[in-house]
Design goal:
By secondary structure, the protein is of the alpha/beta class. It contains 13 helices and twelve strands. The chain folds into two domains: 50 residues, DNA polymerase, domain 1 (Orthogonal Bundle), CATH 1.10.150; 272 residues, TIM Barrel. Helix 1 crosses helix 2. The radius of gyration is 21 Å and the shape is elongated. The two termini are 34 Å apart.
Length: 334
């Protein structure tokens, strides 16, 4: 809950107004797992709260660790499951969180989309992924790049971001958080206005018809229009925008793609993250070789773009980009 929601709770229960701040402090700063742990509340008020509410912390259902140190957590959501990925890297520790059970977007190259959509995650279920892992205190960054499309669940995304970045909550800098999208413009507009966190856009092809063949969202929200919205905001300061670009052999890594990307992104301070494609069943796309990745990176740079090949992590435990799928993990647990 946000501080305003907590104030409504304590008002409804006829508790002092400052009780809301005490509850927030114990939940978000002191990591209380149970209302009984809130020592500066009276026994009467703790009993009253416990009649109607709980902290809402849930431990992960299971976890598996990659040979490269990446760790994937499985969380149970009702009868379904979601995945969360912890990525340690020298002085950084990033958590990739999910925002939906499944996904509606059905991108051709993503396992999550293959399982369809079940439900949005609540603000509690989003924050629980962060708070309940053993590595919580080591986290330096959070990315909303797990299962689901954040801008399709924008109310709960924005609420979770408020709690993460507000002084009453976790008091994180927005610079530590990146939220991704395939380009749902209504949610994107709200995110750009109501949050200061970084933005990552799943681009993957600069040509509309070619992108549509891989990403059905292109039919409703053209990439060109998405870029127009982003260009209305200032990304020359502390806030950043990046574009995620999975490279497919002979498909989207030709000179004409590099040239079109330069045209599309002209005047926008941004970075292109080049991602290796990890083969998934029944998809006729092939990942580019290391040499082809380097060649395309060079092409982009020659066209004046800031491009970087992103290191792939956790492939051996199906934790890399595009491989998250709670259906498979549920089956593995049975």
């Amino acid at each position: 809950m946000t501080i305003d929601e907590l104030r409504n709770v304590v008002a409804d229960l006829a508790m002092p107004k400052f009780t809301a701040t005490q509850i927030a402090d114990w939940m978000y700063k002191k990591g209380a797992e149970d209302i009984e742990q809130i020592t500066n509340l009276s026994a009467k008020n703790k009993a009253l709260l416990s009649e109607h509410y709980e902290i809402g912390r849930r431990a992960p259902f299971s976890s598996v660790t990659s040979s490269d140190g990446t760790k994937k957590y499985l969380f149970q959501i009702g009868e379904k499951y979601i995945e969360t990925v912890y990525i340690p890297d020298k002085d950084r520790a990033t958590l990739c969180v999910s925002c939906q059970v499944g996904c509606k977007m059905n991108c051709k190259f993503c396992m999550t989309g293959k399982q369809g959509f079940t439900q949005h995650l609540t603000t509690n279920e989003i924050l629980n992924q962060i708070q309940s892992i053993p590595e919580f205190e080591t986290l330096t960054n959070v990315v909303y790049m797990g299962m689901g499309e954040p801008m399709d669940n924008v109310d709960n995304i924005l609420k979770s971001l408020e709690i993460l970045t507000s002084n009453y909550g976790y008091a994180w800098s927005p610079k530590r958080i990146t939220v991704s999208t395939v380009g749902l413009i209504p949610g994107l507009q709200r995110f750009l206005k109501e949050s200061k966190c970084h933005l990552a856009v799943s681009l993957h092809n600069p040509f509309s018809e070619e992108r549509l063949a891989m990403m059905p969202v292109e039919k409703a929200f053209k990439l060109e229009k998405v870029i127009e919205e982003i260009k209305k905001y200032d990304f020359t300061g502390q806030r950043r925008v990046s574009f995620e670009y999975t490279v497919f052999k002979g498909n989207n890594n030709l000179p004409r793609h590099a040239k079109m990307l330069a045209t599309l992104l002209q005047g926008l301070e941004c970075r292109i993250n080049l991602i290796r494609f990890h083969t998934i069943p029944n998809v006729d796309l092939e990942g580019a070789s290391d040499a082809e990745m380097l060649a395309f990176e060079s092409l982009l740079k020659k066209n004046g773009l800031n491009a970087t090949i992103r290191k792939s992590r956790g492939e051996d435990i199906f934790a890399a980009c595009g491989l998250l799928s709670s259906e498979r993990n549920k089956k593995n647990q049975e």
